[in-house]
Design brief:
The chain is mainly beta. The chain has a single domain, classed as Neuraminidase, CATH 2.120.10. 8% of the residues lie in helices and 49% in strands. The protein contains 3 helices and 21 strands. Strands 13, 14, 15, 16, 17, 18, 19, 20 and 21 form a 9-stranded mixed β-sheet that branches. Strands 1-2-3-4 form a 4-stranded antiparallel β-sheet. Strands 5-6-7-8 form a 4-stranded antiparallel β-sheet, with no helix packed on it. A hairpin with a 2-residue loop joins strand 7 and strand 8. The two termini are 35 Å apart.
Length: 342
Amino acid sequence: MRRVIASLLFTLLAGTAWAGTPFFLDRNGTLWRATATHEGVVLTGQRDGNEIARDLFPFDFGLAGTSDTNLQVAADEATGKIVLVWQRNWSASASEIMLAVWTDGNWERIERLSEDLFAQPRNPSIQLSEFTGTGADPEYPDDPTRSVEVHDSHVHVVWWEGAGEDQRANYALLRLNADLQESDALLRRDLEEFSRLGLACQNQTPPEVLEHPLFAADAQRDRALLFFGSQRICLQHLVEVRFELEPLPPPDQGPGTITIQRRRSVPIFGIRRSFQMPRDLSMQDTRMILGGNLMPVAYRVTPEAVEYVTATESGWSPKRTLALGQGFGIDQAIALVENLAR
């Protein structure tokens, strides 16, 4: 029983450490939680044991068998916005990835990130990032004494979709600072475009490994580091999404020139490393830790143990297990495993 209680406690606390759980603790001491109910997703905020916020994101239609799973929640400190991402299941063969932004008691933005219900989009994961930069003032581009500061908040989302031989990871990026009227605030990308080189798969990768793209834990909040596998070439890629200030428009464009009123950040994508996929560690509820050499350590917590694998230049280690109990707890085991990252 003590092991079970400890595991449940760890699941709650995990929301304060990395994305991918229905819990998030913000710096104001509010614990945000997303809960699936028969009416839809309920968002609550609790501070010092008192509930200070509650709102329902209802089902569009009251269809029998509809459910919400894989709930994710995150709170952006800069904008004060709460982001929900989840998998809405309409039937056994139809689902979609939903995103909703809540602020000041209202659902400010609602997006259906996936486009094909029958591709069975599933297993979403999210992460926040912040960008701060200084550049030339677009109103006075030739005056070096004038500059503007840009502060942008982003939410990154990855998920898996498809069946049979046509399966892939997908990605979406939402700029939280954007006005609702800005058409380019939401970006979608097919991550398979990063998997152009490699050999065809000879052995099928287990679904619990392949179908769970995730983000690496990263103390630098100015970027996102995401891991995803390619069914086609059996490689797992580490893709970095960083940001730069968008360039100023060229001068003297003539009549009809549109002046940029606010400079924004633009995403820059690049593969940092590629790995063979670990085949004996489920990627569901797994945390990926990176060291300075970008060689990851992946681990997941069960009620009885912490399971982990480490990456090397020649591939992943066999799955290792740290059994819990007899004075050896989850916090100690996690600290030891994370220390393996270099």
